[in-house]
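Each lists sequence, tokenised fold; shown next:
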Amino acid sequence: MIKKLLLIAIVALPLSLSAQTLKFGTVNTVEIFNIMPEKATAEKQLEALSKQYEGEFMKMQEEFQTKYKDFVNAQDSLPENIKQRRMQEIQEMQQRIQNFREVAASDLEEQQNKMIAPLQEKISAAVKAVGDENGFTFIFDLSIPSVLYSGGQAIDATPLVKAKMGL
């Protein structure tokens, strides 16, 4: 009796799987991201922040160069104690400039991530909605190089996602 049930289950399983239709789609999220109006706004904000940091960096750099030139020009006439103190000041300025550069780069990266995350979430929500509305089993992102082949069976859902997002 158990053998008959097992045989029926083995024969019926492939039949039930073949009766289920799988619908595959592809989407290019990078293409969608690049045409989003919010992307241009985020880029402008990041560019403005970058220019602020660049301006501050240039001021620090100019101050350093002035102090360094003054030191080089006067070092022969300075007592050893003052000479050591000024060399230390110059080294501290170099360290502040380096720290500023690192903090600025880190902040720019953090701001970029904060601005891009909502855009990625918006695309993801639109892809999910298109998948639900159109009965897709899977939608693969073509901008991620994990899809090695996209045959004739796969439907490009990029236009559907663009339409869903009003792009």
